[in-house]
């Protein structure tokens, strides 16, 4: 119960991405947000066919091209060069967001500043200073069958990111269905955080202590065991 | 996991009684005749699916396709813009006898309502039908000095569409003006079933040439020499 | 002033179509309604480039194919077989009606049961009996820069089709901008019928007598002179 | 009557001060750099067009394209979804100094508002931004148990788009993901000006392959070896 070092024993971003990738469903259509969520594709399990969507109008893109091989008309929403898998397609922005809002994606994964226990998400700005930029985040949180978040469990100074109510400006209301953190996998159901998996090394009490709202337990809590080398 | 179905009969096997079904095509252009006839075959063999609501621009022609579904007694309601045609006796007789319901929708509004369903837009404003009896009971509002009617999205449980080239990822192209409602309906149904004239591996359609991306298509079945409704009607075929 | 025989001296439908065709503008995009309005394309003046739109998703179609040469996937909104001109394109129904409602057509021409002096049009049904069918008419009357009607000036029993107020169910409100009849060309401006051209053989009084609302005159009234053989 | 313009300078010659201009592209993909630079040339030579409102997903990058327009002082307002980027100093500096206005629109709402303008739909409902500060002041309403925000169409006086193949009838195709906002903007402006990499006679593009039908395009100009924004930024080009 003691001995868990929050900063040293937590999962790295790559390990969180690996854990999220284990839930990718065969035959699914998935949008991975810019940055950290994009890493999930690298850990896609063998034997599962996943088609990736990017907001700027590509379905079925693959890995980044080798340096020097980029075609800058072929990029993703993060403006990184991509390649195409067989069966890819191009479409304009209105059709792309029809896929997003229209319920056609199986999964969207985003980063977060805060997630509230009712599924509210804050991930686009932390205050009123600087240049605001929203991109496709407010669209992506609507329509996908599952909206997941990948995030460190706590802020850099140890404060909770999973909270009773968001204090940062909202991206969407009641939209997140699952959170993959550096310590746990938590579902959002009926306005509550429900703990699904956690790191074996952290106790329930320690996990609750760094979570800003009550963690509910329904059935057995699974163990997150990340393979060596990730 | 594959989207490819071995036959039209398999492709439509799980459509239940009472389903709301979009059927692509404009008249015979782009109409998925083989999928429709497979539904009729199933109804004749099993009595199901019955009491269907069909969404199409028209209400069938001659004694094949949608007209044959209506004659067979499978259809409880049509949602369409133009049930009248030169060979529309199947619908006309049932309608005038009060045996089939009709929701009449202006053609552009029908297209936009279907597109809105596919795009997650629950309602929109259109100038079409303002001040007419087809706008009765609908909210209206002025924007920039012109009056508009509010219309709702139109969804379906199933869409039956006809593509030309298709691939195993569900990507579709369409032949000539056979495109019409097909790409919209593919977006707007919970489950979209496409018959295609040529089925290839993923990559067989150039990414720029895809009209309906595979994300909108659940089932693909190859019908390599599809029948053309207009030719069937002209040769007096009765299905 | 006397001697005009309304049934014998009026223009035929082909002649009305010829007159309407004289106003086709070079470089314009035009939708001709099913039936009578379609005839206008046959009289398109030499040297004018007109691109025809049909609701079912074709821009730039040409004449009907020879019998036996039809491809029944290539039809117009009237379900007649068509051919393509160079520069033609296909698109789906939502894009097709975006062209219609979005103000992209220069001209739409329709038939009419009645046209009112404020531009109201009734052309889709005459009563509550039978099977109603609306097609694209209610869309076509919105968005085009000019919405014209081609029609006999009077009904088969001699009653007026140009009226103060429509008595048949409306297709659109205040939408018609010009009417080509078997006797005259009449603009609709500020809620009034304004006479532009008339057959030379009919007097103003005779024309007014078969028109159900006041004809206003602004400037000179032109003469409709149809070439021999049409 | 031809839609073909002999040069990019001619193509953009009649854009006045204060115009609202949509500019296609997503970052550098599909961005009409040569048309933008022609506008900058004209502004440097004549002081016009100035006080422009630009509509684009982003707000420029590096010291070329839209960023160069902003640096030149031609832009009074940006309507975009993502002004932040790795090389967005041009916008950032003016914005933080209060010298340029910003209307921030979620990316999907931006696309749908532009499409709505092109399709004659003055307003529509979207779930996007409900409950957020970007929905403040906008009507909201519940449909089928979910809350939606009402958004208005977004029109422009001009659209500058980049096609790949074009023909003299104004038909366009796009290269790879360069499609993005270009087809939507072409529909939504009073006057659409397209630069294309290959210009051919009508019929040179197969009717099934046309992405933007010519009805949406007013001016076409060939720029046979267009520059790529990303390469210009990476090589430090300052326009």
From TrEMBL, chains A, C:
Keywords: Transferase. It comes from the Bacteria. One of its GO terms (molecular function) is CoA-transferase activity. The keyword Transferase applies. The keyword DNA repair does not apply. Coiled coil: none annotated. It holds the Pfam family CoA_trans. Signal peptide: none annotated. PANTHER family: KETOACID-COENZYME A TRANSFERASE, SUCCINYL-COA:3-KETOACID COENZYME A TRANSFERASE SUBUNIT B-RELATED. Belongs to the 3-oxoacid CoA-transferase subunit B family. This is 3-oxoacid CoA-transferase. It comes from Brevirhabdus pacifica.
TrEMBL record, chains B, D:
GO terms for molecular function: CoA-transferase activity. PROSITE patterns: COA_TRANSF_1. InterPro entries: 3-oxoacid_CoA-transf_A (IPR012792), CoA_trans_fam_I (IPR004165), CoA_transf_BS (IPR004163), NagB/RpiA_transferase-like (IPR037171). Pfam families: CoA_trans (PF01144). Keywords: Transferase. Coiled coil: none annotated. It comes from the Bacteria. SMART domains: CoA_trans. The keyword Phosphoprotein does not apply. Belongs to the 3-oxoacid CoA-transferase subunit A family. This is 3-oxoadipate CoA-transferase. It comes from Brevirhabdus pacifica. The lineage of its organism: Bacteria, Pseudomonadati, Pseudomonadota, Alphaproteobacteria, Rhodobacterales.
């Amino acid at each position: 119960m003691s001995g868990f070092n929050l900063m040293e024993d937590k999962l790295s971003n790559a390990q969180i991405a690996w854990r999220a990738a284990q839930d990718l469903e065969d035959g699914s259509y998935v949008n991975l947000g810019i940055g950290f969520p994009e890493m999930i594709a690298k850990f896609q399990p063998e034997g599962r066919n996943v088609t990736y969507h990017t907001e700027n109008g590509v379905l079925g893109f693959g890995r980044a091209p080798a340096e020097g091989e980029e075609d800058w008309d072929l990029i993703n929403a993060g403006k990184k060069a991509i390649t195409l898998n067989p069966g890819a397609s191009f479409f304009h922005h209105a059709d792309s967001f029809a896929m997003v809002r229209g319920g056609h994606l199986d999964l969207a994964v985003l980063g977060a500043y805060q997630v509230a226990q009712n599924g509210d998400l804050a991930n686009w700005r932390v205050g009123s200073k600087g240049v605001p930029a929203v991109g496709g985040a407010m669209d992506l949180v609507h329509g996908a069958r599952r909206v997941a978040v990948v995030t460190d469990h706590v802020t850099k100074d140890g404060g909770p990111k999973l909270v009773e109510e968001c204090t940062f400006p909202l991206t969407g209301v009641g939209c997140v269905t699952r959170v993959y953190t550096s310590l746990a996998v938590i579902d959002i159901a009926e306005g509550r955080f429900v703990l699904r998996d956690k790191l074996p090394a952290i106790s329930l009490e320690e996990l609750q202590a760094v979570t800003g709202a009550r963690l509910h337990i329904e059935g057995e809590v699974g163990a997150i065991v990340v393979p060596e080398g990730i | 996991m594959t989207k490819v179905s071995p036959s039209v009969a398999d492709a439509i096997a799980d459509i239940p009684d009472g389903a709301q079904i979009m059927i692509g095509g404009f008249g015979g252009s782009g109409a998925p005749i083989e999928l429709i006839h497979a539904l009729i075959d199933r109804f004749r063999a099993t009595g199901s699916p019955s009491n269907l609501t069909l969404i199409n621009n028209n209400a069938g022609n001659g004694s094949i396709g949608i007209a044959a579904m209506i004659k067979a007694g499978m259809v409880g309601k049509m949602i369409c813009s133009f049930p009248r045609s030169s060979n529309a006796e199947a619908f006309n007789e049932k309608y005038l006898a009060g045996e089939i319901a009709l929701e009449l929708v202006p053609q552009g509004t029908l297209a936009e309502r279907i597109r809105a369903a596919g795009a997650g837009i629950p309602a929109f404003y259109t100038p079409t039908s303002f001040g007419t009896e087809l706008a009765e009971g609908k909210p209206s509002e002025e924007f920039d000095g012109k009056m508009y009617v509010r219309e709702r999205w139109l969804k379906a449980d199933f869409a039956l569409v006809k593509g030309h080239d298709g691939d195993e990822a569900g990507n579709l192209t369409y032949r000539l003006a056979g495109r019409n409602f097909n790409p919209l309906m593919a977006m707007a149904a919970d489950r979209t079933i496409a018959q295609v004239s040529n089925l290839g591996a993923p990559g067989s359609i150039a990414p720029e040439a895809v009209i309906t991306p595979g994300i909108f298509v659940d089932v693909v079945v190859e019908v390599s020499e599809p029948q053309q409704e207009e030719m069937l009607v002209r040769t007096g075929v009765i299905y």
